[in-house]
Amino acid sequence: MTGGTSPTRIVPVNDLPAHGTVSVDLAVPACALAIGAHPDDIEFGCGGTLAKWAKAGAAIHHLVLTDGAKGSWDPEADVAALVALRQEEQCRAARLLGGGAVTFLGRPDGSLQNGSSEQWDVSRCIRAIKPDVVLAHDPWRRYRLHPDHRAAGFIVTDAIVTARDPHFFGDQGLAPHRPRALLLWEADTANHVEDVAGSEDAKIAALLAHESQLRSTMGIDQGGVAEVQAFTDRVRRQLGEHGALGGIAAGESFHLMADL
C-alpha cells in the first residue's frame, strides 16, 4: 500500500450476502498469480493464502503494477532509491511466503490507468503463466479512496476477459488462457474464505519485510518492540475476524468469481 493508510484498518471485513453460504478453501491450485497495485498490497490482501498454497506445492507468481515511487511520507526521499528498495522488499516478502517469481510492470505510482496498454501487459502475463487462480484487488469496493487500487482491480478483471478470448491481443503470439477462479481481496461483499491457520507468521513476516512502509502503512514509527507487537496483534485479530465469516480460526476473505 502507498500513502497514509490508517494502520488500524488493514484488511477490512465487509458485509456478507444476505442469503447463501460462504465457501471455504479452493482446491490447491497448481499455479496462482497474485496481482497488486503496489509492493506490499499482495501481502496484505492474500499473503496467508499464498503461503499456504506454496507450502502445498503450488507455483506462486507475483505481479506488481506500479513502481511504488510515492510510498514515502518523506518529501526529501530519493525516489529512484525508493523504487529500487521497494522492489527488493517485494522480492524478500515473496521468498518469505514460500517463493515465487516477481514481475514489476513499473507503471507510475498514483496514476495507474485501466487502458489497453495495461490490459495488454496483464493479459500477456496471464497467458504466459497460465494460472489456475488469479488474486487481485476488488475494484467494486465501496468508498475505496486510492485510485491505483480501483484501477488495478479493473485492469485485472478486464484482462481476464482479454486473456481468455482469442481475438484480443493476437500480436502476443500466445494461446488464450481462462483461469478457473478469481479471488478479489478487500471484498465489498465477501463470499469465500481461505483457511490460513498456520500461515499467520509467514504473512506477518512478509509484511514486515516492507521496511520502507513501516511508518506510513503499518503504524510502526520508531520500530520498537511494542509497536511491532501491536501491528502483529492487529493482523492476527483481523485474520480471526475474516476466519469467523467461514467458521474457522484464521482466514482471509475474498469475493470469489468462478464463472470466468
Strand content: 15-25%
Number of strands: 8
Principal-axes geometry comes out as: globular
Can you give the helix content as a percent range?
A: 25-40%
Mean pLDDT: 92
CATH-level-2 architecture: 3-Layer(aba) Sandwich
Q: Could you give the order of strands across the largest sheet?
A: 1-7-8-6-5-2-3-4
Q: Can you summarize the main beta sheet?
A: 8 strands, mixed
Could you please say which CATH topology applies here? Answer: Rossmann fold
Q: Under the CATH scheme, which class?
A: Alpha Beta
The CATH homologous superfamily corresponds to LmbE-like
Order of helices and strands: EEHEHEHEHEEHHE
Radius of gyration based on Cα positions: 17 Å
**What structural category do the secondary elements indicate?**
alpha/beta
First-residue to last-residue Cα separation: 27 Å
Number of helical segments?
Answer: 6
The unreliable regions are: 1-12
Number of discrete domains = 1
Report what the structure shows.
There is one protein chain. Helix 1 crosses helix 5 and helix 3 (116-129) packs across helix 4. Helices cover 37% and strands 17% of the residues. The chain starts with 22 loop residues before the first strand and ends with a strand. Residues 1-12 have low confidence and may be disordered. Strands 1-7-8-6-5-2-3-4 form an eight-stranded mixed sheet, sandwiched between helices. The chain is globular. The chain has a single domain, classed as Rossmann fold (3-Layer(aba) Sandwich), CATH 3.40.50.10320. By secondary structure, it is an alpha/beta fold. The longest helix has 21 residues, at 225-245. It has six helices and eight strands, in the order E-E-H-E-H-E-H-E-H-E-E-H-H-E.
